[in-house]
Amino acid sequence: MNILIIDDEPLILNTVRMQLQEMNLPFQDIDTAGSAEEARTLTQKKDYAIFLCDIVMPEEDGISFARWALERFPDSKFVFLTAHADFEYMKEAISMQSFDYVLQPVAKEELRSVIERALHQISIEEKNRRLMEKGSFYENHEQNILEANSYRYLTGLSLDDSFLQKLLSDCFGSFHEDWRYLAYYLQLLTESPVNNTDDKSLFRSIYKNVADETMQPLGLENALIVRDNGSGDYIGILCFPEEKEPAFPLVLQRLEELRVFFGKLLRLQAAVYCGRYEDYDDLPASVQEILEETRNNVRGASHVYQVGDLSSLSSSGYSFEQESSTWKSLLQKNRLTDFKDSVFRYLDYHSGREAVNRDFLMRFHQRVSELILGYMAAEDISSTDIFDENFSYYDFMYCYDTVSRLKEGLSRVFLKLYEKIDIPGEELIQKTVRYIRSNLDRELLVTEIADYVALSPVYLTRAFKKATGSSLKRFIENEKIEAAKHLLTMTDLPVSVISGHVGYANYSNFTRSFKLLTGYTPSEYRSTPQDKA
C-alpha cells in the first residue's frame, strides 16, 4: 500500500513525509510530488491508496487533480491539506465528497488520526469487496457447511476436524497446526437479527468486519463460526505464532471494545466469554468450557467473562433455610402477595450482587417450587388448575436457566393461584393501598374504598386480608399512626394539629390509638426519639 504527498512547498513535503515515516504505518512507499503534473506521472508507475494533496498550488489546484485521479482510481482516498483562508476551495472539496482534510501547518497527531481513519476505511471496503467476489453460493452454502461442521467438532459431536482446518485456512491464508489459538464466544442478549440463511450471510460479513477492526491493533484476524440456531451468537477463533502471543490483558481489552461496538454500532447487547491460550488440539475442550460459562450467565449481563468467572461462583453457602421458614409462614397465612414479594426481593438482591449462577438458580428454584407445590396440596389445588398447554408443569420445572425466565415462570404461577384462591390481583391491592395513603388526612370508610376499587365492602375486606395478612381497618390505622410518627419527629406542629392531619377528629381517640400501637403517648414519642429506633 502506497501514499503520495502532493504540495508545491518542498518544506511541507519533507515535513509531512518525515512525520508519516515516524508513525510506522503500513505503507510500502511514501512518495512526494511538487505539482499535479508530477503526481500524474507517478500514478502511471505505481498505485496509491491515499493521496495527501495541497488544495492551493500555482499551476493546477488540488481540486482539479482530485477529480482527475478519482475518475481513474475510485477506490483511493483523498485527504486535502488546507488553510483557514481556503473556505471556497473547501466547499468545493466537500461537494465532491473528499475523504477528509487537515489544516496547515500539519499537527502530527491530527495527521495520524486522519490517515488511520482512511486506512480503516480502505480495509473495510477491501474486505467487503472480497466478500462480494466470493459469490452468493459460497457465502450462503459452502460457508454454512464449514461452520456447522466446525461447530460439531468443537462441541464434541464429531471427531472430524477437516472442516475446521479448511475454515481456518480460508481465514488465515493457511492452516497453522503448530500456532497458538484463543477461542471466545459472543452471545447476543437482545433479539437476534438472524432469521434465515440470507440474514446469516449478511451478519457474518458485518460481524467479521467489526471483529477484525477491533483486533487490528493487536495484528489479529478472526475466524468466525456463526451459530445456525438463529441466535446470532458466534464462536471467534484467534490464531498467532507462539513468539507473537499478545499479552492476555490486551486481548481482554479488545474483547471489551468488541462488546461496546456491538452495542453502539449494531444496537445489539452482547456478552463475551473468553477462553485461554491453547494448542490447536485443545480447542474443543476450551470451546466446551466457554459454552458452559454462557449457561451460567443467568442474569443476562452484558460483560466480558473469562472461563471460571461465573461457573466458579459457589452456591454451597445458600441453604435458603432461614428464608424458607419465613416464606412457609407467609403461605400458611395465605399471604401470597407477601410471599411473592419476598421471594423476588431475595432473588433481585443476590442477582444485583452478581452472586448467582445456574447452580444457584437451580437450587433456589427447587426450594421455592417445593413451597409452592406444598401450598397447592394444602389448599387442594390441582396442577391442572395452574398449568396448561401455554405454560406446562415441565416449563415451570425447567425455567431456571435465567433470572428473567424464572421470574416470568413464577409470575405465571402466582397469577393462576390468585385466581384459584380468590385473591384479587396485585394491581388491585396496590390501588387500594395508594388510595388509603392519599387520603390519610380524613376519616376513611371501608364502603368508600370499596366503591373506589369497584368491589363490595365484604369482598374487599376478605380479599385484602388474604393478600396482605392484615385487616383493612388495621392497615388504615397503622398507616395513620406511621404518618403521625413522621410528623412528630420531623416537625414542631402541636399534637392536636397532627391529630387532625392524620384524619382523627377526636384528639382522645388519636392519643389512645397511638399509645396502643407504639407504647407511647404522642408527646412521649416526640420527647424521646432515641428510644424508638
Describe this structure in words.
- This protein has 533 residues and is an alpha/beta fold.
- It folds into four domains: 2-130, Rossmann fold (3-Layer(aba) Sandwich); 135-306, Reverse transcriptase/Diguanylate cyclase domain (Alpha-Beta Plaits, 2-Layer Sandwich), CATH 3.30.70.270; 321-420, no CATH class; 426-531, Homeodomain-like (Arc Repressor Mutant, subunit A), CATH 1.10.10.60.
- The chain is 56% helix and 11% strand.
- It has 23 helices and ten strands.
- The protein has helices at residues 10-22, 36-43, 62-72, 87-95, 108-134, 136-154, 162-172, 197-215, 248-264, 283-295, 321-332, 336-352, 358-378, 383-386, 393-397, 403-420, 426-438, 446-453, 457-468, 472-490, 495-501, 507-518, 522-527; strands at residues 2-6, 29-33, 50-54, 77-82, 100-103, 180-188, 223-226, 234-240, 270-279, 304-306.
- It has a five-stranded parallel sheet with strand order 2-1-3-4-5, sandwiched between helices. Strands 7-8-6-9-10 form a five-stranded mixed sheet, with helices on both faces.
- Helix 8 packs across helix 9, helix 11 runs antiparallel to helix 12 (336-352) and helix 17 (426-438) crosses helix 18 (446-453).
- The mean pLDDT is 86.
